[in-house]
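Fold these two proteins, one after the other.
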Amino acid sequence: MRFLDPTNDYAFKKIFGDEKKKEILISFLNSILDRREEGLIVEVDLLNPHQVPHLEGAKETILDIRCHDQRGHEYIVEMQVLKQQFFDKRVLYYASKAYSCQLGEGEDYGKLSPVIFLGILNFQFTKNLHWISNHRLCDVETKEHKLKDFDFTFVELPKFVKTEEELLSVSDKWVYFLKHAKNLEAVPEVIFEEAIKEAFGIVTQGAWSQQQLDVYERRKMALMDEAARISSGFHDGKEEGRAEGLAEGLAKGVEKGREEERKAIAAAMLQNGCDVALVHHATKISIEELKTLSPIQAISRG
């Protein structure tokens, strides 16, 4: 059995943008955004349902998944394979535009609903050692979260270094699917969640029509062309070599990722008052080494 690459933007939207299989998107959002109890998403209304595009260049066909949940909160879910110049500004622009477009002329500000941006990135974007990071508008000193209508979460695939045997949470399994499905020959035995198994079924190559495979391959080639353009330098050549340096850095990061992630988790536990012996048992880091960790290394999901 062969699986196609879920990070291909056409495949990504085929998985998460199907009106008839919204339970897949709901599972993905709830696990990655760590939604629990009263915060659980139970229903979504897709704002840009998937259609097979009529493509020539195909550049404009598939950008993101957008939906509302049962409370009216708006979600933008984007798969971004290549690091682009001004990506941070584009994220802010998308979120602010989605927010401002909720109001018509003369309507009350009270009708505005939160906008949650979820970026799945195939490159390193933040300095956070963990593979998932959450960004909010908070008071610099008190950390008060008063401006609550914007929330940004990034999943950085190069930082995810867990093996199949180490998959514990649903979010672990979703990210493992996104990163490794194209190299697998069967659904891992540790994955028993129906939504994720359904996602594997969607990217099974034998289930795709020739027209769909043609779209997939064209998107793949377009991505390769874009990668070549970036590797030769952005526009005027001022950033020539940046992509090569990034690739080298990612390789080293993957090699060191597991150890650094354990240290970051240990630092977070210590910062939150956990007993050293408990942290040692949970992370397998020696007590002597734990004493050298600085709280600044701590990670947080926000």
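Now the second one:
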Amino acid sequence: MTTKQIAHLKSIAMNLKPVMQVGKLGVHENLIKDIEAHLDKHELMKVSILKNSDIDDLEFKSLLIAHNITIVSKIGRIFILYRFSNKLTKHIEF
């Protein structure tokens, strides 16, 4: 992904609010399925990691990469995630 594409996705994500939160239960399979389902419908989302969560950033990043989810940006404890969806007819234009 190029820097211009990343900048474009960041600009779109500025208006988004975090859709999901990772809490004290950490990341479990249902959360990953929910993230994948949301990305299939929207291609872009924000996920927030709460302060009481035991998961660290590196572990969360490795789980996302294992599911082919691109981390566009990380600001504090908020991640901006992107994945191209074959199920959509109208995609994010670069």
